[in-house]
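Shipment paperwork, digital attachment
Item: protein structure file
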Amino acid sequence: MARMAQDNPAASSSEALPAEARGDLLTAATRHIALLTAIVATCGSLYFSEVLRWIPCQLCWYQRILMYPLVVILTIGILRDDRGLHLYALPLALGGIAVSLAHYLEVLGIIPPSACVGSVPCSIDYLTPILTGPLAFIKIPFLALVAFAIISVMLGNYALAGAPATPPARRRSAAIGVIAILLGTIALFVLLGLL
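Attachment content:
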């Protein structure tokens, strides 16, 4: 067994951590995955409206209202090691799922168009000329729905796992990770000319 661990370093590293410790690491990472998803979704929506000049509809704005605060809430919750983070972030993500699903069904024509007030109708589909064939099901509300679902699953996992206490050393590395994600996002915006 020892010889096998020497031949396969990956096996020895996974054997070094007990299953419970690996589960704690995975649970601690769920908040970071939720944050990264919120940042990508926020940057994507800003890219669509500010770079591609696609005008958001009213339901798009509702989805933005639910997504954008998640970046701030998740960042502060991770930096403070708030074990109740899911209590105030999960309702926003679940609300986003409801709005995104309704919007997606409207764009597909499954439900009748809503009384959307704004310069563009809520049933508009900017991605149809771009994504055809087997990818035609991907619409902007679908992208938001996937993002809200990932955030909800990650925060639900964090809540159900009992939100383990984070040791100070790991808390510092989590803070460095969050700061790196935020600085990378700012650098991306600078490169794209949005700031």
